[in-house]
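Please fill in the sequence for the structure shown.

STRUCTURE ENCODING:
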């Protein structure tokens, strides 16, 4: 029987709003998912408007004002207490300074329009990368090389990694990268034109070894896509954050083991030499292995526990196309559970110190997973399917066994 929430779902329109330009409501009917930018830099999102009707000008400005309260400098509001209809004053331009060179690695295993969009976005960067490396992880049958030729895609380095596994594909790109930095993204994202500029900025601090960025939904056209956002999505907010094991610890008792606290592997950059020195991505983890995932949190933990800092930079924006169908979402959430538990199992196996760290957090982890008002669960709406929660728990229970299977295979 269909879930009642699916019957009532109305597609949400995605709209970018530049606050330094005249603030006019988007044409057409709502609801709207508004991404607010100041001088091109994302600063907030807000859901506004109702199905079947356009937004009035004042209603639009009220929504923008609520979303930016506390985020913008004082004195920007007009006499009516709202953001001015003509837009706010642009911020003084920042000194871009010198930036390290960066190689961008895109992993793929099949031809798709998404791959073409990802590569097109990388060609349109305000700060072009030194090189774009496309790693074909299924070269015998994928047809990626011919697909790129048919679509006249040039200016990329196409390399093959025949051994299956996302971590293997990323490590292949890492092995040949020529930039001082190496960034990783997927073949199903739209890359903001300032992404390279933003993700390289924090590396001016020599103590930073990794930078992750903001991931927002490319579309919210189906109930499954909205449920993924309620599950947790990829976005980690609009405030730059620094993470380490000394002064800049993340919130809660689970830090640094809470899934997703550092960001997602589809939007991350590293100092190339540092990533090589710690062995790159663990090839027993990640999509394409029995462990199915967990490689991104694993490498973030390795970087932070090695004494480096990790910075979450929301100005480094990509948009991800979430799965549209419930079955695909259920499989994805199961994989996330397997990957998380496999990663935790790996950390326990290889490090006695971490084994005790993790053991002390088991109670907090259970509450985080199961309590309806935990930070993980409180965003789930009343129609969120219990089946998805059960799918994640099944994955977590399977994760330790999946890790041992992956370890034997490797």
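FILLED IN BY: designer on duty
SEQUENCE:
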């Amino acid at each position: 029987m269909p879930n009642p929430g699916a019957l009532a779902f109305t597609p949400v329109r995605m709209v970018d709003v530049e606050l330094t330009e005249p603030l006019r409501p988007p044409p057409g009917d709502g609801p709207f998912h508004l991404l607010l930018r100041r001088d091109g830099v994302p600063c907030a999102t807000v859901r506004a408007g109702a199905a079947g009707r356009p937004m009035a000008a004042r209603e639009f400005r009220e929504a923008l004002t609520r979303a930016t309260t506390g985020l913008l400098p004082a004195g920007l509001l007009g006499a009516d207490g709202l953001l001015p209809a003509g837009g706010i004053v642009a911020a003084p331009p920042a000194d871009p300074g010198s930036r390290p060179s960066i190689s961008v690695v895109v992993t793929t295993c099949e031809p798709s329009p998404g791959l073409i969009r990802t590569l097109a976005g990388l060609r349109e960067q305000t700060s072009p990368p030194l090189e774009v490396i496309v790693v074909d992880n299924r070269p015998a049958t994928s047809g990626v090389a011919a697909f790129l030729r048919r679509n006249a895609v040039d200016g990329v380095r196409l390399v093959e990694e025949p051994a299956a596994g996302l971590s293997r594909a990323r490590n292949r790109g890492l092995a040949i990268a020529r930039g001082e930095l190496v960034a990783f993204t997927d073949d199903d994202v739209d890359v903001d034109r300032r992404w390279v500029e933003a993700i390289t900025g924090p590396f001016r601090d020599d103590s930073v070894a990794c930078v992750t960025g903001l991931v927002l939904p490319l579309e919210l056209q189906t109930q499954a896509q909205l449920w993924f956002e309620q599950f947790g999505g990829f976005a980690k907010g609009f405030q730059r954050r620094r993470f380490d094991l000394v002064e800049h610890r993340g919130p809660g008792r689970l830090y640094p083991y809470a899934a997703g606290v550092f960001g997602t592997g589809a939007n991350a950059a590293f100092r190339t030499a540092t990533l090589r020195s710690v062995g790159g991505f663990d090839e027993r983890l990640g999509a394409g292995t029995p462990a199915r995932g967990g490689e991104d949190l694993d490498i973030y933990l390795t970087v932070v526990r090695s004494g480096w800092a990790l910075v979450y930079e929301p100005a480094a924006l990509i948009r991800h196309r979430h799965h549209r169908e419930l079955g695909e979402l259920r499989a994805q959430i199961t994989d996330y559970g397997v990957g998380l538990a496999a990663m935790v199992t790996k950390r326990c196996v290889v490090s006695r110190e971490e084994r005790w760290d993790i053991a002390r957090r088991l109670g907090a982890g259970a509450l985080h997973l199961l309590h309806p008002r935990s930070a993980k669960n409180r965003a789930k709406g009343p129609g969120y399917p219990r089946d998805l929660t059960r799918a994640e728990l099944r994955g977590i229970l399977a994760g330790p066994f999946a890790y041992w299977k992956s370890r034997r295979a490797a």
